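hey all, quick one before standup. I had two proteins in the batch that finished overnight and I want to keep them in one place so we stop losing track of which output belongs to which input. First protein below, input sequence then structure tokens straight from the run.
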Amino acid sequence: MSKILMVVSGADSLTLADGTTHPTGFWAEEVAASHEVLAASGAEVTIATPGAVRPTVDALSLDERGGVPPGEAQRFRAYLDGIADRLGHPLSLAEARADDYDAIYIPGGHAPMADLAQDADLGRLLNEADARGKVVAALCHGVAALLSATRDDGACTFAGRVLTSFTDEEERQGGLGDSTPFFVESRLRERGAVVRAGAAWSDTVVEDGNLITGQNPQSSTSTAEAVLKALAAR
């Protein structure tokens, strides 16, 4: 049985480019759909957050204002309710050890930009996991969390790696636009990653060795399935 550490942001607000505060959290589909696929395979999924705080779901991810139809919102809400105990008692990232897991999986929502992108404990975990060839997966804005991992010389651990993320185009079309504190795609490019983006809002997954990334919420199920396929091939 595979053991997967799902790292979820603990942030409930994001400081925008103009200094104002914007409510945020994890994106419901990215946690619910991913967790459902992984758990249904028989994998043991442990949820971890910075400081073991209970993560907050972004209200927009369960609302038509966020582009989520009522039926889908109801389904995601029901699934999250079903794992409420796990979400309510997460492992602290500081206590997590890469050797205890076969894969690390990071869903998004804007929240990872507020904490995971700079989290030293996550950076340590990602460095350990990547050095051991374990599967490292991230989805949408969760790919910003890869920025937390740096080498001894200060370079991003994932510089030179091929990946995808929530694109600048998608941020402008259906995200925070120019209010965003930074554009994830652009920041990853600046830090040396090779970003291969699909069409806006397409189900796009990119694999580069042990690194698996998904572009947006529409890629949630495919990203989780790619992780399971990679684990089964080991």
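OK second protein, same deal, sequence then tokens:
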Amino acid sequence: MAGGRHVLIAADKFKGSLSAAQVAEHVARGLRRAVPGLCTEALPVADGGEGTVDAAVAAGFERREAEVTGPLGTPVRAAYALRGTDAVLEMAQASGLRHLPEGVFAPLEATTRGTGELLRAALDAGARRIVLGVGGSATTDGGAGMLAALGARLLDADGAPVGPGGGPLAGLASADLSALDGRLADAEVVLAGDVDNPLLGPAGAAAVYGPQKGASPGEVEALEAALGCWVRVLAEALGERAAAAARAPGAGAAGGVGYAALVALGAVFRPGIEVLMETLRFAEALDRADFVITGEGALDEQTLRGKAPAGVARAARGRGLDVVAVCGRLLLDPRALAGAGVLRAYALTDLEPDPAVCMAQAGPLLERTAERVARDWLV
């Protein structure tokens, strides 16, 4: 009987409307309205960007907070998640666009110092395996601010510390990483993201993501040159591996934080959804499930490039489980969905074509959508 089934709801957030936990709550409510007594399990997921800490907390991690330096140098409160010696950090919490005033960007000055301070807070709390989710950052400083917060000395030709942000790296003359926090040597750092860009060049951090952070064409050029200087100076300090790391997949993530993590923290870059599914013990949840619902705000071409729903569907289909998706907007055809392992997708815009109304009424619309899912698949 349908009431005896076990449905796993593993969706990402609907950005601007609902957190991943809220998505699961509304889906479960709609399913049970159609099938009273249905057994549902919520496991909110994320791909390393915004919402990653919330997903970890929903899976049983403890929420912790620290006061750190925001991207503009002012203090901000940043959350991270801790379970035993495992920590999940979300770069956007410390150095994200969310901390900039509306309509204000600082492409040359925004710093990742707060991300380094958040890493240090996790180490202070006993973390020895740190998942650093990248995405939603306001910065293009190559991770220089992060390393400075962890003990690196980055100096200009006069022996003074270089200023914050990517722009001042053009004046960097020397880098001394000998005083980096010693606990990092015994810690495992996993860089979790959904982009594999190198640090430099036409596919690099400045060229691809600089404009999204408010950089003009001239500022993109300046950032590219500054990041090139950053690589040269680190190569002088650390050897050829620093130059090689700039070309590695993921080095360009989050304005180059990926590069600093790879070259100085011994980090390993992995697709964010894979890391988060392991950390949140997704395989154990799949063992209990016989039907899976995933989703996110928009199912589009980006979804197929390592976003959370694609990862969930791939893992579930690998177990022979049926997977359907819910979303705000659907921009993939049935063939693309099938290729991703999704049998069918249900969009809120099927019920309400006005996007603004969809955003405002996402919860109730999602419940109605979940009722449709239940009638189609669970009755």
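Flagging for whoever picks this up: Residues 217-238 form the longest helix (22 residues). Residues 90 and 133 are 5 Å apart (CA to CA).
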